[in-house]
Design a protein that fits this description.
heterodimer, A: alpha/beta, seven-stranded mixed sheet, 9 helices, 16% strand, globular, B: mainly alpha, 4 helices, elongated, DUF2304 domain-containing protein (chain B), DUF2304 (chain B)
Amino acid sequence: MSDNNLVIIPAYNEQIRITGVVEDLRREGFEDILVIDDASDDETRDLVRALGVKLIEHPVNMGVGSGLRTGFEFAIIKDYKYVITVDGDGQMKASDAAKLCDVARKGHGFVYGCRNLNEPGVPRIRRCINTLADIFTACLSGKYVVDTQSGLRCISVKLLEKFNLKSRGHSISSELIAESIKNNVVPVAVKVDAIYTKESIKKGQKISNSLKVIGELLG
Amino acid sequence: MSLFQIISLTVLLWLGYKQLRKLKGAPAAKIIYRLQWFFVTLLAVLLVSEPEISSVVAEKMGIGRGVDIAIYFSLIWLLSRSYNQSQEIEGLYSKLDKLVRKISLGGVDEEKTNTSSIQHKK
């Protein structure tokens, strides 16, 4: 897994899950792990330091999109080949991140983890929000892509350099897909499992911020 | 003059006085912005002291009642102010976003090893 790939984990108040997420990734052979601490109020920062992985701190809380963009810029400066984005809430399995890398190595610029949202256990509200987000992303990009809001991605840094990203919040997911399509790279979906916990539901997309996301993308 | 007019005029004149005082020594760019508020206050003073004016304007514009034209114009003005302010806030957030990234990534270029942490100086 060490072929010049960087795992980026945007984290905000993830003290309960961050250690598990990093340890899982290490078990899968990921060596270069970068945590972007988005000005957490809890112990996230100290835990990441103790884990000995790379840590970049935001002095002010700016949102998940802003955190990812900081990570992308770091990957560009450091000349990495691929970035793997993983949510800090432990919703995704590290083994699935490895699966994505295997597919990307075959020459794909953008590979993402597509969850089966029709599985039992997936909250109905989450299914509705994700479907609406997919439709909205299709309107933006001109191509319908399933599960655009997935936080598990493997993107070529060369492709990332061409992106013009502006989102600071959750709208980054739609923006990444739209930018990829704009650059003639259709994201490749790889089926993955998602673990829904109370925390991950609380942290993810909400109906209340859907309008904010649309506003961010249109603005 | 009714009690409502007296209270409204007192408040408006006090506001106008405060705005005029702020004009003193203000930079050129701010003078236009503050004058805009002063003229809005002046218009409010005129409408409160002479309510018939709004009725005359409303009749000429085919709206009907004077109070309706005041509400319509207030709505348009408030919406435009609200839009402008949201644009200004968005612009500030955008600048803050760039600044946060610059601070966070400060020193990354000089960073040679792959193991140490990159933290901004507090």
